[in-house]
Amino acid sequence: MLETTRTYRAKIVNHSQVSDNLDDCGHSVSKLWNVARYHAQQEWDDTGEIPSEADLKRELKDHERYSDLHSQSSQRVLEELAESFNGWFKKRKNGDTDANPPGYRKRGDNHPRSTVTWKQNGIKHDSKHNQLRLSKGFNLKNHRSDFILCEYETRPDVTVENIQQVRAVWNGDHWELHLVCKVKIPVEDAPGDNTAGIDLGISNYLAIAYDDGEAELYPGNVLKQDKHYFTRDEYDTEGENGPSRRALRTRQKLSRRKDHFLHALAKHIVEQCIDHEVGHIAIGDLSEIREDENGDSRNWGRSGNKKLHGWEFDRFTTLLEYKAEEHGILV
Predict the structure, then answer these.
(1) Residue 111: is its pLDDT beyond 90?
(2) Is residue 330 in some structural domain?
(3) pLDDT beyond 60 at 263
């Protein structure tokens, strides 16, 4: 058996009853993010260094906004901010001069509804009645045992168990739940002893060659067209006080389309490997592609750097690994 995680999207059946509470939590996430972002800026100005995740948690655990959410939910907000700063710093170090540090989550005097994450200590799951009890922070409780009781609905083929995280996500019109579950998947015997080699690229997303001499090329035109169209649409709708609602929806749509492309391509490659009786897939190691022979950031020019740093080869490799493992194929 292969132990892995799966994220299931769920509809909130009693949305009208819990939406106000989820709104409060979503606004609280934005407020805590802004408090932490301001603190990080001050530390940066005073010391020239960005505070770490541990520093943020230590300095802000007694802040009033920290108690608006369950402690683990507040911790996740600070973790996400630290991850965003690390991602930005890594891009700048690798030569992406267009990369910007994480911004504030505010439009005028309003705070957007940010994603709220509950970890295991903040979740009680009633699988019999498809209900989730999600903890509130001390400041948002009306009484000691106050909580958010969500009734959810998933696809008929989904069994929700071993929940690790629950994320409440505002999709622009309503809240939905993303349930992160630990699952065990039966692993099949390898379909054969053959080997396939994969070469990842930017213009052409990948090329694959099989032992029998057959080879296939998969262009990345769809990804490039989506990136061009949706990025332009996002900039055209940028508001005076940050991204507009339409710009945020545009980002979300681009992210969903990219995820769908990568999932569909990884699934197709695995199916092709099964047909060719492949037991092993060899894929190029691109972990140091952004560095030159001296370990310095590789400079491909302004346009080339944007392509290089937007290349999600590690994301595709991760998807391919777990999809292949289910069928006994090693990557």
Answers:
(1) no
(2) no
(3) yes
